[in-house]
Design goal:
The chain is of the alpha/beta class. The protein is built from 2 helices and 8 strands. A hairpin with a 5-residue loop joins strand 7 and strand 8. The radius of gyration is 15 Å and the shape is globular.
Length: about 120
């Protein structure tokens, strides 16, 4: 679950950058989306808004993170390009790694860090 100050913006980013599909949404008392479930391929994850009585909060916007989401897609270079168009910052450009995966790292506009990869098994 990704905690965000602006859930609507994070949902829009994930749709534009990753082609995410929104599976469900819940509204808060003020009408804004407080929780959503998204899918990218077979990966399913949740986006949740900040709530004062919970300790969860949006990450720092400096590229540091104790959690890095690792998303396998068929074309990491194109996905990273789409993510940048949607507002992401490239932390590490995509490159072929010694273990065979092609991997790049981005930080989304909410500060979450993502490794975007293609598995060595899918290499063309």
């Amino acid at each position: 679950m990704l905690t965000c100050a602006d859930t609507e913006a994070e949902i829009a980013f994930c749709k534009q950058a990753f082609g995410a599909a929104v599976l469900s949404e819940r509204l808060w008392t003020d009408g804004r989306i407080i929780h959503a479930t998204l899918a990218v391929g077979q990966a399913i994850f949740m986006i949740h808004g900040e709530i004062s009585h919970l300790a969860s909060h949006e990450p720092r916007h400096d590229g540091s993170s104790s959690v890095v989401l690792y998303l396998y897609l068929s074309d990491p270079d194109k996905t990273i390009e789409d993510a940048v168009k949607a507002g992401a910052n490239v932390l590490l450009p995509a490159k072929d790694e010694p273990w065979g995966d092609r991997v790049g790292r981005i930080m989304d506009p909410a500060g979450h860090v993502w490794n975007i990869a293609r598995s060595a098994a899918e290499k063309h």
